[in-house]
């Protein structure tokens, strides 16, 4: 057993040594910032660059929020494509010397196929009325899954035809690389958009909580960090981790209170086929109506309050903030391990002081999955509006059958009188 372990260790070590060095990313910091910060040490220079670029990104994010939900969807799609590009490019750089045929073309082809499938599902679910008015779209929606499978099968056959002797293992490895990257980027970004349709607050609070945790953990770690947190990320400290947790919980609670007051943020995003616009108008659900809660006896002595008024959603913000600050960082640790495996510092040099887009959104994808699972498990109930849209695309005889079944059910429950016609 000892000999076997030693041989396996030697194989792992040899595999790591066989990985060629990836060229380090170039410094993309604007010249004006380089000159302005030239007198500072490298540590403080990086702090200021990260701070200035973080504020710029936050300002741009709020500008896109102001422009509406459609622009947010385009932003999510753009980030997805860029993150996919950064991960695939690492694979291409590492194994470029092998000149694998069709690798890049097939990678982008599979991205188009998977996006076609997921976004087609979204159109079928949320734009049923719009689709019903256009015959050519009805065909695409009706046979959407068959078309998606046919497109994927075409790429699969192209991959098999591209196999080259002596490079089989490497090609299958890169095939798996592409599919895992698709799973991480496309699937998760689809969940982000699904969360957005539930109401912009389900999009903004989780994303902002991750951003807040990232910033506050960095600040606490920068000024007070002494105790290393994890070997994968030597700069992460327990002080930053704990400080980020408490800061994120407080931020999520306050930010949720502000957003819960506005229909624009709490109403589900729906497409109005008459105006060809996304609308966010509704009667806010109970989650976003102020309620009075009794303060636990232990806290009454500290706060001096017996009751407190708050939105029920603020209670859910604790769960979102806790996940963002305790579990979300493990997405970053995972990304750190990936970068160490391929001897790179950052995924790319897109954002000065931050690295690539994937460096900033490694935790967001994990958060998106949690929010989607949380909504489906604890929040979402039957959606009459969505059900009505699906009924409207049925054939008249199918609609009549549903009507008769529903009428019979309501008569049995005593809600309708048996003599009622209609």
Automatic annotation (TrEMBL):
Keyword match Membrane: yes
Organism superkingdom: Eukaryota
Pfam short name (any one): CTP_transf_1
Keywords annotated in UniProt: Lipid biosynthesis, Lipid metabolism, Membrane, Nucleotidyltransferase, Phospholipid biosynthesis, Phospholipid metabolism, Transferase, Transmembrane, Transmembrane helix
Record-annotated membrane-spanning stretches: 47-79, 100-119, 139-161, 173-193, 199-225, 237-260, 313-335
Enzyme Commission code: 2.7.7.41
Protein name: Phosphatidate cytidylyltransferase
Annotated source species: Vidua chalybeata (Village indigobird)
